[in-house]
Structure formats: structure tokens, C-alpha cells
Amino acid sequence: MIKPENVQDEAAKKEYENKKFRTFLKCNADENELDQQFQKLHQELFAGYDCNSCRNCCKQYYGSIPETDVEQDAKHLNMDVRTFIHEYLEPDENSTDYHTKNMPCDFLQEDGSCMLGDCKPLNCKNYPYTDQPDRLWSLYSVLEAVEVCPVAYEIFESLKQEYGFRCRR
Q: From the CA atom positions of the chain, what is the Rg in Å?
């Protein structure tokens, strides 16, 4: 497995190749089969991976908190909603949701765990979305994840091997 601190540089070296592979998949992959391949690789590679030892996603993105989660998150941290929002959140300009004031995410703890525990937002729990359906139609988001998440990087590299993909310049 690629080391978390190396994934961004290695993905940058393969940016052209990864974009070509994305195009290859768009033109050649069966949607259902690709979802199954992603699902299988996701389960295999995450089975032995400790996300707390990496947390690149929490370090490189603001945390996104749905408005519907604010009350339970505040309660989890033994805070009232107003204090929770004031201390940790800013309104998202494009929705009624919130994002953390800082990057790395304000809820990332030194040991790699999340202060929100089981209340962690669904988008955080699901990242890098490699086990979600319709991967063929969201390959740009996969390419973004490949630059951040070591497991997403390895999944994409494994798929290249499965398809026998060779990049020609």
C-alpha cells in the first residue's frame, strides 16, 4: 500500500495516465461490472487498512456537516447548538449545511479519530465513495480521491491491471 504522505505526489506523476484510464473506462467498461470491481477492491483493500493512521481526507478537506446533523453533533460534544456552530462551523454558501472553520477538519484528533465518533457525517463515513454505485458516472470524483486516499489510489491501480490498461502518449 502506498504511504499516505506519498499519495499526492505519486498521483500527480500519473495524472495524465489516470485521465486516459478514466476515458478508457467511460468508453469500454460495463457499468454494473465496474461497480462490482470497485466494491470488491474496496472491501479487500479497506479490510486491512487503518484509516486513523492516514486521515489525508480530514487533513485536506473541510469537514461538511449537514444541517440535519448539527443538533446531534452538538449534543454528542455536550454543547448547545449555538455554541457548537459558533465554535466549529461556518454556513455553506451553496446550501443550508455547514462546513468546518478550518482545514484540517476541526474534528480531527491527534490519534486520527474523529471527535464526532459515531455521529460523523455520512459523507465522511463513505469517503472515498469507492464502494458506492454508479462509479462510471463519477470517475472525476474518483480521480480526486486517488490524489488523497491511499486505498483509492491502489484501487485505481488495480483496475488498470484488471483491464490490462497501457497508457500511450
A: 18
